[in-house]
Amino acid sequence: MAGSVPAPGAYGSAQPVPDGWRAETGGLRRPALGGPRAGLAASALVAALALGNLAGLPPAAAAAATGAPFDGVGVAAVGAAQPGVTAPAGAGSTSGGDTTLALPAWPLVQSGQQGPQVRTVQYLLRGRGETISADGVFGAQTKAAVQRFQTAQGLDADGIVGPLSWSALVVPLDSGGSGEPVRALQTQLNRYGAALAVDGVFGAPTAAAVTGFRTEHDLGAGTAVDATVWQALVGGAPGAGTYALPLAHEKLPRGEYDDPHHDYPAIDLPVGTGTPAYASAAGTVTAVNNSACGIGVQIRDAAGVVFMYCHFSQRVAAGGSTVTPGQLVGYTGSTGNSTGPHLHFEIRTGSTNRCPQNFLLALYDGVTPPDPATLPTSGCTSAGLVAGESAHD
After folding, report:
1. Same domain, yes or no, for 57 and 139?
2. Which of 155, 256, 287, 328 is deepest in the core (most CB within 10 A)?
3. Angle CA(22)–CA(58)–CA(13) in degrees, nearest 5?
4. Are residues 36 and 172 in the same domain?
5. Residues 210 and 100 in one domain
6. Cα separation, 313 vs 299, whole angstroms
7. CB of 110 closer than 8 Å to CB of 138
8. Is 379 inside any structural domain?
9. What is the CATH number of the domain that holds 299?
10. Looking at residue 248, what is its pLDDT?
């Protein structure tokens, strides 16, 4: 069946290549954090070694059988740059023959993050037999599951899902398949606005979404999801941007995200001091520290939308730094003009405060949120101030 994978512990023991390193002729090199961290050849070698061990082949023979480069010590002999991969048949052909696609780099997914990338990793691990929750929060259980998988694959068990772990973790899928890997696929397609039910069934809606994604990204026709399609999905950034809840999913019930604010468009989320707060969008951080907001941050995205966090007990993201969705930015508290621990959260476009409730509810439900610029500017406030609070609580 499409998407079926070996059971945990059934993998061979490939030569370990740390996931944060790139294999090169003569040894390993660790690239700068955030850049492409492993070439396709290194990923191909790891897959070849794993498959070869399953088939009883020695490493050199496994590499030769799949065309993966092999330098004799268990690492791929690759250069400093990987130009891309050859496009599938039917994809953006040129008069000279095959087209080479420059695929986006696999993202780094690790402890402290949350959002659809984490949930994708969790679904894929569940497809390998892990029993972790797919809650979109990269906590201790998810890290332990990643480390078990990396050990089984012969990778360095650092608990960070980078290029080599992604390449070994994704599985081929096609129409008619089902299971946790399909949920992972649906989660990724929803990042691009597919609005699919994450039900693990590769039916007509999922097939249509895959076809549309392949066509839009010059990946050829069809519904097959291979390693190239996975990398384009996971590594790519949807045009409208990606978002994450400002708090871990399990910290509050859904009903807390539709509560009105007492005075103006915003929301107060009741959590205790020291609760991790995460970036809802990619953007540039401005540090805040005043008598009203207390310790906090503003995150301004590429479109100029500002996401405001107030009353931190501790700020983690420095002013001037850039953050990605789900990145830890601070810990909640009750600094500034506040009557008790909570996270004050706002969305602003220009000088206008927008009601964030529908945006947050969509994120809680795992569906594509509305464009912040379309959020209402009224209708999310209570009739008056709550006793003892002020307009900046």
Report:
1. yes
2. 155
3. 60
4. yes
5. yes
6. 18
7. yes
8. no
9. 2.70.70.10
10. 83
336 shares its domain with 204 = no
| Helix intervals (H) in the chain | 40-55, 59-66, 116-127, 140-153, 163-169, 180-191, 204-216, 227-235, 357-365
Q: How far apart are CA 77 and CA 39, in angstroms?
A: 10
* DSSP sequence for 334-352: --SS-SSSBEEEEEEETTE
- How far apart (Å, rounded) are the C-alpha atoms in residues 359 and 76? 45
Residues 94-127 have pLDDT tens digits of 334 445 567 888 888 899 887 788 899 999 999 9
Domain count, the chain: 2
291 and 345: one domain? yes
CA distances for 190 relative to 122, 193, 266, 354, 368, angstroms: 16, 5, 26, 24, 6
Residues 222 and 294 in one domain: no
pLDDT band for 3, please (50, 70, 90 cuts). Answer: very low
249, 119 Cβ separation under 8 angstroms: no
Structural domain containing residue 104: 22-235
Structure tokens at 97: 């023959």
* Residue 328 counted as domain residue: yes
Query: Which secondary-structure segment (H or E) carries 23?
Result: strand 22-24
Specify the 3-state DSSP secondary structure of 201.
strand
161-206 confidence digits (pLDDT tens): 999 999 999 999 999 999 999 999 998 988 777 778 889 999 999 9
Q: How far apart are CA 192 and CA 172, in angstroms?
A: 20
> What residues contact residue 263 under an 8 Å CB cut-off, 6+ apart?
381, 382, 385, 391
For residue 151, give both structure tokens. 């050990």
pLDDT-based confidence at residue 236 (cuts at 50, 70, 90): confident
| Residues ≥6 apart with Cβ < 8 Å to 316 | 328, 329, 330, 331
Specify the DSSP element, H or E, that contains 283: strand 283-290
Of the candidates 178, 202, 177, 179, which has an alpha carbon nearest to the alpha carbon of residue 189? 202
- Looking up tokens 């996975």 gives 230
Residue 238 is predicted with a pLDDT of 61
What is the spatial distance between Cα 155 and Cα 322, in angstroms, rounded to a whole number?
Answer: 30
Q: Are 154 and 19 in contact (CB under 8 A)?
A: no
Among 168, 161, 150, 191, smallest CA distance to 37 is for 161
Amino acid at 79: G
Token digits of residue 288: 């805040």
